[in-house]
Structures are given as structure tokens and as C-alpha cells.
Automatic annotation (TrEMBL):
Superkingdom assignment: Bacteria
Source organism of this protein record: Sphingomonas ginsenosidivorax
Pfam family, one: adh_short_C2
Protein name, UniProt field: L-rhamnose 1-dehydrogenase (NAD(P)(+))
Gene Ontology MF, one: quinone binding
Single biological process term from Gene Ontology: rhamnose catabolic process
Catalytic activity: L-rhamnofuranose + NAD(+) = L-rhamnono-1,4-lactone + NADH + H(+); L-rhamnofuranose + NADP(+) = L-rhamnono-1,4-lactone + NADPH + H(+)
Pathway per the UniProt entry: Carbohydrate degradation; L-rhamnose degradation
Primary enzyme class: oxidoreductase
Statement: the UniProt record of this protein carries the keyword NADP: yes
EC number: 1.1.1.378
Organism placement in taxonomy: Bacteria, Pseudomonadati, Pseudomonadota, Alphaproteobacteria, Sphingomonadales
Protein family (similarity comment): Belongs to the short-chain dehydrogenases/reductases (SDR) family.
Oxidoreductase keyword on record: yes
Length: 253
């Protein structure tokens, strides 16, 4: 129960990593507010699982690409749950596409969701934490893609590098308020974002073969690292990043 008494907000939490993290935090004692864009059934079932654990849960719909969504989410979550102790920026998209004919709208939408949305969400959560006056923890779900390139991810990798950079800067800006800001770098995690890409069995086998731990990641693999950064166990950790990739990044030979 590392998060007992804490309130956690998670964006993009109706499925995948966000859902796993939201439920995982509840398992450790937190009340949880979920942001989601379209999947009403997924969000409602996640809230049901949170409540089944004896915790409070609320799902609030909103497109993070709209800056107004950030203030709305934090305000409604605070009204329902009382405060914000932990904010997890997870919402993101990755519509795979080649570089030379990248549609402007695909590039801009990816930037708006992944980077612009994160900026305003983090800002809104930080303002609430500052108002409360007793610190907090902000966690950005960046990616191994912040550190390496991807042929069909030229619009995506800059957003993940930007998220990590944002956490470094806000760690400095918010340290005086006792607010810690850190990044997680997931490797290849089996979620809807890469479902089509990994439907190619040859590619999946290749990816698995590059990972020292011998398997692709599952959303639940991000729960432990998130709970650590959210909890008082990491009280002196800020501006840091943690790879959660099964060892893929270091396997260069």
C-alpha cells in the first residue's frame, strides 16, 4: 500500500499502459481519476476495477490536444477526489507513417496530443499541487523512442524526447514547491498503439530476439516503476529517467 492516502490522476487511461497504471495505483491504496478520449466502455470498466479494490475512481472524458481539457480534468478530478498528489501524463498516439510523404495533419495531431497536451496537463496539475502547498509527483510516460530513431516514427520520437526534456525543466521550475518530476522510458509494450505493427510475426519475433529478457513488455510492467516514482520511496528523485524496456536499449551487439 505504497500510495495509501494519495490521489493519482492518469491521462489516456481507458486502455494500455494508462489503464494498467491507474488500476495498479489503486491496488497500492490510491484514489484515481482517469482521463480518456473516446473509449467510454474501457474507462468505465477501469473505474469499476478501481472501485472493486475499495478505492474511489472517476473517469473524465476529454481530448488532451485541446488545452482547455487540462484545466477541466484537473479541476473536476480535484472536486471529486479532494486533491492531486500524483499526475501521470500517459496519453499519446503513434500513427506509423513514412517520413517523405508525412501528412501535415498527422504530424500536427501527434504533436498536439503527445507534446502540447502534456505541457498543458502538467501545468494544470502543477498549479493545483502548488495551491495545496505540500508537494507532489509528476511522471511523464516518455519512451525508448526518446533515445533512438524510428523510420516510421519521425513525428513521434521528437514528442517523446520533448516529454523527457519537459520533465527535466519542470523538475527545476517546481523543485522549490516540493514537486518531483520524472520520466519513464517504456520499450516495446504490447498495446493498441503498436498492435498493427506487431501483427507481422516476423517483425515481432525479431523484436523479441533483441530483448535480453526475451519478451515484449506488458502494460503491467510499468506499474512498479510508476508506483515507485509516485511514492515516498522516491522522495529525493527528480529530473530523472528510467528505462523499462527489458534491456533492449543496451543490446547493441
Amino acid at each position: 500500500m505504497l500510495l495509501e492516502g494519495k490521489t493519482v490522476l492518469v491521462t489516456g487511461a481507458s486502455a494500455g499502459i494508462g489503464r494498467a497504471v491507474a488500476i495498479g495505483c489503486a491496488r497500492h491504496g490510491a484514489d484515481v481519476a482517469l482521463n480518456f478520449a473516446r473509449d467510454v466502455a474501457g474507462a468505465e470498466s477501469a473505474v469499476a476495477e478501481i472501485e472493486a479494490l475499495g478505492r474511489k475512481g472517476i473517469a473524465i472524458q476529454g481530448d488532451v490536444a485541446d488545452p482547455a481539457t487540462a484545466k477541466d480534468f484537473v479541476s473536476r478530478a480535484t472536486e471529486a477526489l479532494g486533491r492531486v498528489d500524483v499526475f501521470v501524463n500517459n496519453a499519446g498516439i503513434c500513427p506509423f507513417h513514412a517520413f517523405l510523404d508525412m501528412p501535415v495533419e498527422t504530424f500536427e495531431r501527434t504533436m498536439q496530443v503527445n507534446l502540447h497536451g502534456a505541457y498543458f496537463m502538467v501545468q494544470a496539475a502543477a498549479n493545483q499541487m502548488v495551491k495545496q502547498g505540500d508537494g507532489g509527483s509528476i511522471i511523464a510516460m516518455s519512451s525508448i523512442s526518446a533515445l533512438v530513431g524510428g523510420e516510421y516514427q519521425t513525428h513521434y520520437t521528437p514528442t517523446k524526447a520533448g516529454l523527457h526534456s519537459l520533465m527535466q525543466s519542470v523538475a527545476i521550475a517546481l523543485g522549490k514547491y516540493g514537486i518531483r518530476c520524472n520520466s519513464l522510458f517504456p520499450g516495446t509494450i504490447l498495446t493498441d498503439i503498436n498492435k498493427e505493427d506487431l501483427a507481422d510475426q516476423g517483425k515481432r519475433t525479431y523484436m523479441e530476439g533483441r530483448i535480453p529478457l526475451g519478451r515484449l513488455g506488458q502494460p503491467d510492467d510499468l506499474v512498479g516503476p510508476t508506483v515507485f516514482l509516485a511514492s515516498d520511496l522516491s522522495n529525493y528523485v527528480t529530473g530523472a529517467s528510467l528505462l523499462v524496456d527489458g534491456g533492449a536499449y543496451v543490446n547493441l551487439q
